[in-house]
Amino acid sequence: MEKRSDALKAQKKAARSRATDDLHEWRKRLKDLAHLTQFGDGRLRNAGRTLGNARKAEQLLGDDHDLALLRDRVVKRGRTAAARLVSNVQIGGRRAKL
Hints:
Elements: H1 2-17, H2 20-39, H3 47-77, H4 81-97
């Protein structure tokens, strides 16, 4: 299944770089895989498990992306350096827990 290999390639790249754009690209490839798996649900072995795992990972990556965007906004628009630092640390801590 080509979409599975696309998702695995994106996962490896994201794991190496930990860059927001690479993590977001991995999420998009998981979405592709989930949609393909959903359409072939009755014909593919382990389709339910693959779909469930893809959806869970997709949600976590989406949460991480939202936090990354929030962090960028806070750092750029924070009123004081201290407020930006505290917000950045808090958001970074939340991302680490994902």
